[in-house]
Amino acid sequence: MEVACPNHELCECSPPQEVLDCNHGMCMNCVRTFRHPLRFADGPAECAICLEVAARLVEHPASCGHYFCVGCTLEMHWPQRDPVPVTAFGCPPCPHATSCVERPCELEHWDCGVCDPGVCDCGDCAGCSGGPAAACPLSRGHAAWVADHPEQYNAWNDADNAAMYRWEQEREVTNSDKCPLCRGRTADSPDALWRASAT
């Protein structure tokens, strides 16, 4: 049976009860990131980060009394990275033999966590049921692109790796463990259900 994480408004996770039982009553992402159930508050109130009026806010996991909108809290702790589009470097063979105008291009999702090239959801192949990657038209298209146009693939791969490096550097600078207003640390929260050992 799936049960909503106490931070469900933020993480949107509803894992099986066994997962909550093993993680202080939270989903795995929340227990690693926040270490305790967060406090939510009703607005309207202005978020100190984006300066937008929000209907719902969440206290920083440092338990310092500073509240931010859900969107800014998500970006602070779990920022999303947009992948470098493959179409900017040439386009792999489309598995559906249609133009991107007729159908959204699944090829743009490679390596971004949205889909796995080893598992396809086109409904037309064995890969749709989690079968071998060789059965998936997305994987076949990717392999053909690498083999037929290695210079395009290498240029895209280099650009995507560079974008990933820049994103990781930006993440280090933002240091989401600290409240942007008081610099209180999540690890020092009096609400933390566990603490990392000092090194």
Average pLDDT, all residues? 75
Structural class: alpha+beta
Give Rg in angstroms: 21 Å
Shape: elongated
Q: How many domains, as an integer?
A: 2
- Tell me what portion of residues adopts beta-strand conformation: 5-15%
Compute the number of strand runs.
3
CA(first)-CA(last) distance:
39 Å
Largest sheet: 3 strands, antiparallel
Q: What strand order characterises the main sheet? A: 1-2-3
CATH-scheme architecture of the largest domain: 2-Layer Sandwich
Uncertain residue segments: 109-120, 124-135
- Annotation field: number of helices: 6
CATH class category label of the largest domain = Alpha Beta
Element pattern in H and E:
HHHEEEHHH
CATH topology of the largest domain: Herpes Virus-1
State the helicity in percent bands. 25-40%
3D architecture notes:
By secondary structure, the protein is an alpha+beta fold. α5 packs across α6 (150-174). A three-stranded antiparallel sheet has the order 1-2-3. The chain has helices spanning 8-11, 17-22, 28-33, 70-77, 137-148, 150-174, and strands spanning 40-46, 53-59, 67-69. The longest helix has 25 residues, at 150-174.
Give short descriptive properties of this protein.
alpha+beta; Herpes Virus-1; three-stranded antiparallel beta sheet; elongated
Short summary of the structure?
The protein has 199 residues and is an alpha+beta fold.
